[in-house]
């Protein structure tokens, strides 16, 4: 068991975690970053990022994360792989419980992100990321100019994705398993009034077609009332059936809302009810969910960690 006490342990290597590492590194805190199962986070599964400031021609998601990683390393960030199963905050320094070891830390920044929920239907995984199935209209919508696409889901995310896609796509099918939207009235009203959006009610997706060609060519859906199956010809499938925040191991230390997202202390986006424990990125934000907002929160969390350590005279 390591007896070393880390200044800052950052859990997560998405935009939030790595930006926190850049700032903590530059503050001379020699941060330790723990990498989980998806190093680089959600952006690594996106082919091109066109909305991250500073890249007029866009940037490959994987490349952006590699660059963030190198940038943090330049300022003394260290990386270790490991899955955190729990965070004990009753005693200080805090104890991060990993599968094979324990790490003790003066401050912890949790930047574990959220995972988009997927349907699990055939073709979805095979054609995910750059081949026509995606979970982010803001990231990928512009690639579907003048094409037909489908959005799966009936909540606010689906409504938002569908409305955003109308800027590019020729037609947006909204495939929902019931005949009323879960989305807020105002969003639902906009969706239903939009001439480019065609709801496909009472329908569940059955398969994404196009695996053999390596690109989406259609979506097979089944009407749950009639059991009839039809194939909609289209080029893009946007899955918007919700996200699962990766907050489970930290629920003893940080409050979560009904959907499992971290609830920061009221006066701050990144402070929690446990002084010295901070949150950043999609694990604490289901509203914006953008690379740049996650990076912003990572910056805030690192600055708060640095200030907290200074206040303790550490
Ligand atoms: P959500 O509200 O949980 O909606 C998920 C949708 O996906 C529901 O319509 C659900 O159908 C459907 N669904 C779930 N699993 C499915 C499956 N396996 N197959 C087919 N359909 C499935 O999730 P969300 O839309 O991401 O919203 C999450 C939270 O963030 C909500 O509180 C929302 O209000 C908020 N949000 C707000 C905004 C905004 O205010 N601009 C934007 C986005 C999100 P059922 O309806 O039948 O359950």
Give your account of this protein's structure:
With 314 residues, this protein is of the alpha/beta class. The protein is 22% helix and 27% strand. A hairpin with a 5-residue loop joins strand 15 and strand 16. The chain is built from 6 helices and 19 strands. Strands 1, 2, 5, 6, 7, 8 and 19 form a 7-stranded mixed β-sheet that branches. Strands 10-17-11-12-13 form a 5-stranded parallel β-sheet. The protein is elongated and about 65 Å long. The protein folds into 2 domains: 5-115 and 243-311, FAD/NAD(P)-binding domain (3-Layer(bba) Sandwich), CATH 3.50.50.60; 118-239, FAD/NAD(P)-binding domain (3-Layer(bba) Sandwich). The longest helix has 21 residues, at 291-311. Bound molecules: NADP nicotinamide-adenine-dinucleotide phosphate. The site of NADP nicotinamide-adenine-dinucleotide phosphate has 17 residues, from helix 4.
What features would you highlight for this structure?
single chain, 314 residues, alpha/beta, FAD/NAD(P)-binding domain, 7-stranded mixed sheet, 5-stranded parallel sheet, 6 helices, 27% strand, binds NADP nicotinamide-adenine-dinucleotide phosphate
Reading the helices and strands in chain order gives EHEEEHEEEEEEHEHEHEEEEEEEH
Percent helix: 10-25%
Largest sheet: 7 strands, mixed
Structural class: alpha/beta
Shape: elongated
CATH superfamily of the largest domain: FAD/NAD(P)-binding domain
User: Can you tell me the CATH topology of the largest domain?
Assistant: FAD/NAD(P)-binding domain
Mean residue pLDDT: 94
Proportion of residues in β-strands: 25-35%
Number of helices: 6
Radius of gyration: 21 Å
CATH class of the largest domain: Alpha Beta
Number of domains: 2
Low-pLDDT parts are none
Q: How far do the termini sit from each other?
A: 23 Å
Task: Give the bound compounds.
Answer: NADP nicotinamide-adenine-dinucleotide phosphate
Q: Total strand count, please?
A: 19
CATH architecture of the largest domain: 3-Layer(bba) Sandwich
